[in-house]
Amino acid sequence: MKRHDTPVVWWLVLLAAAGAFALTMGTRQTMGFFLSPLNTATGLGVGSISLAFAFGQLWWGLTQPFAGAVADRVGAGRVLLVGVLLVALGTFLTPFMTTTWGLIFAIGVLAAGGAGMAGPSVLMAATARLIPAERRGVATGVVNAGGSFGQFLMAPLAAALTASLGWMGALQALGVIVLLALPAAWVLRGPG
């Protein structure tokens, strides 16, 4: 999508970026709800499971600058596509992991790395390319608000899914729900 100077396109770009951030960040932030069921199911202990979450925090932060650099070369849409798929895969696979290393892989590498690829560095750069310079301040606020709204939206959704599907089904449902961010990859594809 080339940059256009029409408000309809601005809002489509902002909705795509904020929506993708809401789904990926919201899903990622609900993982803490599943600490106790993971502990009960695996018997690994809170320390081992927390290690996977801690690694995920580190990996999420480390992934972002590299994702931004790759997005500059191949386009934000491609990076966002891979990121969303990784978040979905890591979230979906988490209930099947019964070892510390398995949880580090699913939560810490796949889901967190995917969230870094579909995170603010890629989303902000994509919106900055697609909307006029005088609208970029608003764009930054809207995209960041999307991440916050995702946390607000996904927490009660995760609780409701857990009540109706159990914790394993809830994680798998969240992994599928995050795929709703895939159309944003097309809208934010940019050059490449």
Strands, total number: 0
Order of helices and strands: HHHHHHHH
The CATH architecture classification is: Up-down Bundle
How many DSSP helices?
8
The percent range for helix content is over 70%
* Outline: elongated
CATH class assignment: Mainly Alpha
Description:
This protein is mainly alpha-helical. The chain has helices spanning 7-29, 35-42, 46-74, 76-93, 100-117, 120-130, 136-177, 182-187. The termini are close together. The model has no long low-confidence stretch (mean pLDDT 92).
What features would you highlight for this structure?
8 helices, 192 residues
Describe the structure concisely for a colleague:
This protein is an all-alpha fold and 192 residues long. It has helices at residues 7-29, 35-42, 46-74, 76-93, 100-117, 120-130, 136-177, 182-187.
Topology:
Elements: H1 7-29, H2 35-42, H3 46-74, H4 76-93, H5 100-117, H6 120-130, H7 136-177, H8 182-187
Helix pairs in contact: 1-5, 1-6, 1-7, 3-4, 3-5, 3-6, 4-5, 4-6, 4-7, 6-7
